[in-house]
Amino acid sequence: MKKIYFVLLMMCCVLPVSAEQWLVMGFDDWPPFTGKGGSPRVAVEMLTQALERLNYHVDRVPLPQGQFSRVFTDDQIQVSPALWHDVSREEIMIYTDPIFENRLVLVGRPGSNAESIGLSDLQGKKLAVVDGYAYGEKLASSPAELVMGKSDAANIRSLMKGDVDYVLISELLMIYAKRAQKQGFRDEMEVGKHPQITRQIHFAVKKTTPNAKKIVKQLNGEIAKMMEDGSFYEILGINRIIKDINGDGKPEVLLMGDPARTLNPEEVYYTGGNMDIPETDMEHWYMVDGKYYKTMEEVPADKREKMNKMAEQQIKFLIEG
User: Residue 276's domain spans which residues?
Assistant: First the structure.
Protein backbone atom coordinates (compact mmCIF):
# COMPACT_ATOMS: atom_id res chain seq x y z
CA MET A 1 0.00 0.00 0.00
CA LYS A 2 2.85 2.39 0.85
CA LYS A 3 4.30 1.85 -2.62
CA ILE A 4 0.99 2.83 -4.22
CA TYR A 5 0.83 6.06 -2.18
CA PHE A 6 4.42 6.85 -3.13
CA VAL A 7 3.68 6.38 -6.85
CA LEU A 8 0.55 8.55 -6.63
CA LEU A 9 2.52 11.26 -4.82
CA MET A 10 5.20 11.27 -7.51
CA MET A 11 2.54 11.54 -10.24
CA CYS A 12 0.99 14.56 -8.54
CA CYS A 13 4.38 16.25 -8.43
CA VAL A 14 5.22 15.56 -12.07
CA LEU A 15 2.01 15.74 -14.11
CA PRO A 16 1.08 19.47 -13.74
CA VAL A 17 4.27 20.58 -15.55
CA SER A 18 3.99 18.86 -18.93
CA ALA A 19 6.24 19.90 -21.80
CA GLU A 20 3.37 21.28 -23.87
CA GLN A 21 2.33 23.75 -21.15
CA TRP A 22 5.37 25.96 -21.72
CA LEU A 23 5.85 27.72 -25.06
CA VAL A 24 8.67 30.07 -26.05
CA MET A 25 7.59 32.99 -28.26
CA GLY A 26 10.26 34.70 -30.37
CA PHE A 27 9.83 38.02 -32.16
CA ASP A 28 11.78 41.01 -33.42
CA ASP A 29 10.87 44.71 -33.58
CA TRP A 30 8.00 45.12 -36.09
CA PRO A 31 5.53 47.69 -34.70
CA PRO A 32 2.64 47.75 -34.26
CA PHE A 33 2.60 43.94 -34.24
CA THR A 34 5.76 43.04 -32.34
CA GLY A 35 8.42 44.88 -30.37
CA LYS A 36 9.76 45.63 -26.94
CA GLY A 37 7.52 46.73 -24.09
CA GLY A 38 6.42 50.35 -24.24
CA SER A 39 5.61 50.36 -27.96
CA PRO A 40 2.52 48.95 -29.72
CA ARG A 41 2.86 45.19 -30.13
CA VAL A 42 -0.68 43.92 -30.58
CA ALA A 43 0.33 40.54 -32.05
CA VAL A 44 2.54 39.71 -29.04
CA GLU A 45 -0.21 40.66 -26.59
CA MET A 46 -2.90 38.86 -28.64
CA LEU A 47 -0.97 35.59 -28.87
CA THR A 48 0.01 35.78 -25.19
CA GLN A 49 -3.59 36.22 -24.06
CA ALA A 50 -4.88 33.50 -26.42
CA LEU A 51 -2.30 30.98 -25.13
CA GLU A 52 -2.90 31.89 -21.50
CA ARG A 53 -6.64 31.42 -22.00
CA LEU A 54 -5.75 27.94 -23.28
CA ASN A 55 -3.71 27.34 -20.08
CA TYR A 56 -0.28 27.53 -21.68
CA HIS A 57 2.57 29.35 -20.00
CA VAL A 58 4.38 31.76 -22.33
CA ASP A 59 8.02 32.79 -22.25
CA ARG A 60 8.44 35.88 -24.47
CA VAL A 61 11.87 36.36 -26.05
CA PRO A 62 12.50 39.69 -27.88
CA LEU A 63 15.18 39.16 -30.52
CA PRO A 64 17.86 41.74 -31.34
CA GLN A 65 17.27 43.74 -34.51
CA GLY A 66 18.43 41.80 -37.54
CA GLN A 67 18.08 38.38 -35.91
CA PHE A 68 14.52 37.58 -36.97
CA SER A 69 15.73 34.42 -38.75
CA ARG A 70 16.24 32.87 -35.31
CA VAL A 71 12.48 32.32 -35.24
CA PHE A 72 13.11 29.54 -37.76
CA THR A 73 16.60 28.34 -36.75
CA ASP A 74 16.65 28.55 -32.94
CA ASP A 75 15.39 25.24 -31.51
CA GLN A 76 14.31 27.00 -28.30
CA ILE A 77 11.77 29.23 -30.09
CA GLN A 78 8.45 27.48 -30.68
CA VAL A 79 5.88 30.11 -31.68
CA SER A 80 5.79 33.37 -33.65
CA PRO A 81 3.15 36.08 -33.11
CA ALA A 82 3.35 37.68 -36.56
CA LEU A 83 4.27 36.14 -39.90
CA TRP A 84 3.22 36.74 -43.48
CA HIS A 85 2.38 33.43 -45.11
CA ASP A 86 5.37 32.14 -47.06
CA VAL A 87 5.19 28.78 -48.83
CA SER A 88 8.93 28.31 -48.38
CA ARG A 89 8.46 28.29 -44.60
CA GLU A 90 5.73 25.65 -44.53
CA GLU A 91 8.36 22.96 -43.98
CA ILE A 92 9.21 24.63 -40.67
CA MET A 93 6.04 26.38 -39.45
CA ILE A 94 2.33 25.61 -39.21
CA TYR A 95 0.27 28.76 -39.75
CA THR A 96 -2.97 29.66 -38.01
CA ASP A 97 -5.85 31.23 -39.86
CA PRO A 98 -5.20 34.92 -40.62
CA ILE A 99 -5.25 36.96 -37.40
CA PHE A 100 -4.61 40.51 -38.60
CA GLU A 101 -4.89 42.36 -41.89
CA ASN A 102 -1.83 44.54 -42.48
CA ARG A 103 -2.99 47.36 -44.76
CA LEU A 104 -0.06 49.39 -46.11
CA VAL A 105 -0.90 52.97 -47.02
CA LEU A 106 0.97 55.91 -48.47
CA VAL A 107 1.90 58.73 -46.11
CA GLY A 108 3.11 62.11 -47.29
CA ARG A 109 3.32 65.70 -46.17
CA PRO A 110 0.29 68.03 -46.43
CA GLY A 111 -0.61 68.72 -50.05
CA SER A 112 1.06 65.54 -51.33
CA ASN A 113 -2.26 63.95 -52.38
CA ALA A 114 -1.32 60.83 -50.42
CA GLU A 115 -5.01 60.33 -49.69
CA SER A 116 -5.93 59.74 -53.32
CA ILE A 117 -2.90 58.53 -55.31
CA GLY A 118 -1.42 55.04 -55.64
CA LEU A 119 1.94 53.35 -56.12
CA SER A 120 1.61 53.60 -59.90
CA ASP A 121 1.42 57.42 -59.66
CA LEU A 122 4.85 57.95 -58.10
CA GLN A 123 6.98 58.57 -61.19
CA GLY A 124 9.94 60.74 -60.14
CA LYS A 125 9.07 60.47 -56.44
CA LYS A 126 11.13 59.00 -53.60
CA LEU A 127 9.30 56.32 -51.63
CA ALA A 128 10.70 55.10 -48.30
CA VAL A 129 10.25 51.43 -47.43
CA VAL A 130 11.85 49.22 -44.78
CA ASP A 131 14.89 47.30 -45.93
CA GLY A 132 14.33 43.53 -45.81
CA TYR A 133 10.51 43.57 -45.85
CA ALA A 134 8.84 41.41 -48.53
CA TYR A 135 6.39 43.86 -50.09
CA GLY A 136 5.67 41.81 -53.21
CA GLU A 137 5.26 42.45 -56.92
CA LYS A 138 3.02 45.52 -56.64
CA LEU A 139 5.81 47.56 -55.08
CA ALA A 140 8.36 46.18 -57.53
CA SER A 141 6.29 47.48 -60.44
CA SER A 142 5.98 51.02 -59.03
CA PRO A 143 7.91 53.73 -60.93
CA ALA A 144 8.95 55.33 -57.62
CA GLU A 145 12.57 55.56 -56.56
CA LEU A 146 12.76 53.26 -53.55
CA VAL A 147 14.70 54.49 -50.53
CA MET A 148 15.52 51.73 -48.05
CA GLY A 149 15.25 52.66 -44.39
CA LYS A 150 16.15 50.78 -41.23
CA SER A 151 12.64 51.04 -39.76
CA ASP A 152 9.23 52.68 -40.16
CA ALA A 153 10.19 55.27 -37.55
CA ALA A 154 13.36 56.15 -39.48
CA ASN A 155 11.33 56.50 -42.68
CA ILE A 156 8.84 58.85 -41.01
CA ARG A 157 11.74 61.01 -39.82
CA SER A 158 13.08 61.11 -43.40
CA LEU A 159 9.66 62.20 -44.61
CA MET A 160 9.38 64.98 -42.05
CA LYS A 161 12.88 66.24 -42.96
CA GLY A 162 11.96 66.25 -46.66
CA ASP A 163 14.47 63.56 -47.68
CA VAL A 164 11.69 61.45 -49.25
CA ASP A 165 8.29 62.24 -50.75
CA TYR A 166 6.26 59.33 -49.38
CA VAL A 167 6.41 56.44 -46.93
CA LEU A 168 4.70 53.07 -47.34
CA ILE A 169 3.60 52.06 -43.86
CA SER A 170 1.05 50.09 -41.85
CA GLU A 171 -2.28 51.87 -41.49
CA LEU A 172 -2.62 50.48 -37.98
CA LEU A 173 0.80 51.83 -37.01
CA MET A 174 -0.21 55.31 -38.20
CA ILE A 175 -3.33 55.19 -36.02
CA TYR A 176 -1.23 54.47 -32.95
CA ALA A 177 1.43 57.02 -33.96
CA LYS A 178 -1.11 59.82 -34.39
CA ARG A 179 -2.58 59.01 -30.98
CA ALA A 180 0.76 59.13 -29.24
CA GLN A 181 1.99 62.36 -30.81
CA LYS A 182 0.80 65.91 -30.40
CA GLN A 183 -1.52 67.67 -32.81
CA GLY A 184 1.46 69.13 -34.66
CA PHE A 185 2.55 65.68 -35.75
CA ARG A 186 -0.93 64.86 -37.03
CA ASP A 187 -1.03 68.12 -38.96
CA GLU A 188 2.26 67.29 -40.70
CA MET A 189 1.07 63.95 -42.05
CA GLU A 190 -1.33 63.19 -44.90
CA VAL A 191 -2.34 59.53 -44.68
CA GLY A 192 -3.73 57.55 -47.60
CA LYS A 193 -7.30 56.30 -47.27
CA HIS A 194 -6.89 53.25 -49.49
CA PRO A 195 -4.45 50.39 -48.92
CA GLN A 196 -1.77 49.98 -51.57
CA ILE A 197 -0.77 46.51 -50.40
CA THR A 198 -2.71 44.20 -48.10
CA ARG A 199 -1.11 41.20 -46.41
CA GLN A 200 -2.60 38.74 -43.95
CA ILE A 201 -0.67 38.16 -40.71
CA HIS A 202 -0.71 34.81 -38.93
CA PHE A 203 0.47 33.23 -35.72
CA ALA A 204 2.73 30.27 -36.43
CA VAL A 205 3.91 27.24 -34.47
CA LYS A 206 7.13 25.41 -35.27
CA LYS A 207 6.48 21.85 -36.46
CA THR A 208 9.01 20.48 -33.97
CA THR A 209 6.89 21.79 -31.07
CA PRO A 210 5.06 18.98 -29.24
CA ASN A 211 1.40 18.88 -30.33
CA ALA A 212 1.99 21.69 -32.87
CA LYS A 213 -1.13 20.89 -34.93
CA LYS A 214 -3.25 20.76 -31.79
CA ILE A 215 -1.94 24.15 -30.64
CA VAL A 216 -2.73 25.75 -34.02
CA LYS A 217 -6.26 24.32 -33.95
CA GLN A 218 -6.73 25.60 -30.40
CA LEU A 219 -5.49 29.06 -31.35
CA ASN A 220 -7.88 29.30 -34.30
CA GLY A 221 -10.77 28.49 -32.00
CA GLU A 222 -9.64 30.81 -29.21
CA ILE A 223 -9.15 33.81 -31.50
CA ALA A 224 -12.69 33.27 -32.82
CA LYS A 225 -13.92 33.34 -29.21
CA MET A 226 -11.92 36.50 -28.50
CA MET A 227 -13.52 38.20 -31.49
CA GLU A 228 -16.94 37.16 -30.24
CA ASP A 229 -16.46 38.33 -26.65
CA GLY A 230 -14.74 41.58 -27.71
CA SER A 231 -11.37 40.97 -26.03
CA PHE A 232 -9.67 40.85 -29.45
CA TYR A 233 -10.75 44.42 -30.16
CA GLU A 234 -9.90 45.61 -26.65
CA ILE A 235 -6.29 44.57 -27.25
CA LEU A 236 -6.34 46.42 -30.58
CA GLY A 237 -7.69 49.49 -28.78
CA ILE A 238 -9.89 50.54 -31.70
CA ASN A 239 -13.63 50.87 -31.25
CA ARG A 240 -14.76 50.87 -34.90
CA ILE A 241 -14.41 47.53 -36.69
CA ILE A 242 -15.43 46.58 -40.23
CA LYS A 243 -16.43 42.91 -40.35
CA ASP A 244 -19.12 40.54 -41.64
CA ILE A 245 -21.07 40.03 -38.44
CA ASN A 246 -24.07 38.02 -39.65
CA GLY A 247 -22.34 35.93 -42.33
CA ASP A 248 -24.21 37.39 -45.30
CA GLY A 249 -21.03 38.27 -47.18
CA LYS A 250 -21.49 42.01 -46.59
CA PRO A 251 -19.43 43.94 -44.02
CA GLU A 252 -21.01 45.83 -41.17
CA VAL A 253 -19.62 48.55 -38.91
CA LEU A 254 -19.13 47.22 -35.38
CA LEU A 255 -18.97 49.96 -32.74
CA MET A 256 -17.48 49.28 -29.32
CA GLY A 257 -18.80 52.57 -27.89
CA ASP A 258 -21.35 55.31 -28.56
CA PRO A 259 -20.18 57.00 -31.80
CA ALA A 260 -21.49 60.36 -30.59
CA ARG A 261 -18.89 60.23 -27.81
CA THR A 262 -15.99 59.07 -29.96
CA LEU A 263 -13.41 61.78 -30.60
CA ASN A 264 -11.76 60.31 -33.70
CA PRO A 265 -14.29 58.47 -35.91
CA GLU A 266 -11.74 58.02 -38.72
CA GLU A 267 -10.01 55.29 -36.72
CA VAL A 268 -11.25 51.96 -38.05
CA TYR A 269 -9.88 48.43 -38.26
CA TYR A 270 -10.73 46.14 -41.18
CA THR A 271 -10.99 42.39 -40.65
CA GLY A 272 -11.03 41.63 -44.39
CA GLY A 273 -13.83 40.85 -46.85
CA ASN A 274 -15.65 42.96 -49.46
CA MET A 275 -14.54 46.55 -48.94
CA ASP A 276 -16.14 47.88 -52.13
CA ILE A 277 -19.26 48.85 -50.22
CA PRO A 278 -19.13 52.45 -48.94
CA GLU A 279 -19.22 52.64 -45.16
CA THR A 280 -22.25 54.91 -45.38
CA ASP A 281 -24.17 51.97 -46.87
CA MET A 282 -23.15 49.53 -44.13
CA GLU A 283 -25.32 48.62 -41.17
CA HIS A 284 -24.01 49.76 -37.79
CA TRP A 285 -23.97 47.24 -34.94
CA TYR A 286 -22.87 47.61 -31.33
CA MET A 287 -20.99 45.23 -29.04
CA VAL A 288 -20.71 45.12 -25.27
CA ASP A 289 -19.86 42.14 -23.06
CA GLY A 290 -19.67 39.88 -26.10
CA LYS A 291 -23.21 40.56 -27.30
CA TYR A 292 -24.29 42.27 -30.54
CA TYR A 293 -27.03 44.87 -30.84
CA LYS A 294 -28.42 46.40 -34.05
CA THR A 295 -29.33 49.77 -32.53
CA MET A 296 -28.14 51.78 -29.55
CA GLU A 297 -31.69 51.69 -28.18
CA GLU A 298 -31.49 47.88 -27.91
CA VAL A 299 -28.48 48.11 -25.61
CA PRO A 300 -29.57 47.85 -21.92
CA ALA A 301 -29.03 51.07 -19.97
CA ASP A 302 -26.32 49.65 -17.71
CA LYS A 303 -24.41 48.24 -20.68
CA ARG A 304 -24.83 51.52 -22.58
CA GLU A 305 -23.11 53.32 -19.71
CA LYS A 306 -20.26 50.80 -19.90
CA MET A 307 -19.87 51.56 -23.62
CA ASN A 308 -19.75 55.27 -22.89
CA LYS A 309 -17.01 54.73 -20.30
CA MET A 310 -15.01 52.75 -22.86
CA ALA A 311 -15.33 55.65 -25.31
CA GLU A 312 -14.34 58.19 -22.65
CA GLN A 313 -11.21 56.21 -21.80
CA GLN A 314 -10.26 56.21 -25.47
CA ILE A 315 -10.89 59.96 -25.74
CA LYS A 316 -8.65 60.57 -22.71
CA PHE A 317 -5.91 58.50 -24.31
CA LEU A 318 -6.24 60.39 -27.59
CA ILE A 319 -6.07 63.79 -25.90
CA GLU A 320 -3.29 63.07 -23.45
CA GLY A 321 -1.27 60.78 -25.80
Answer: 238-320
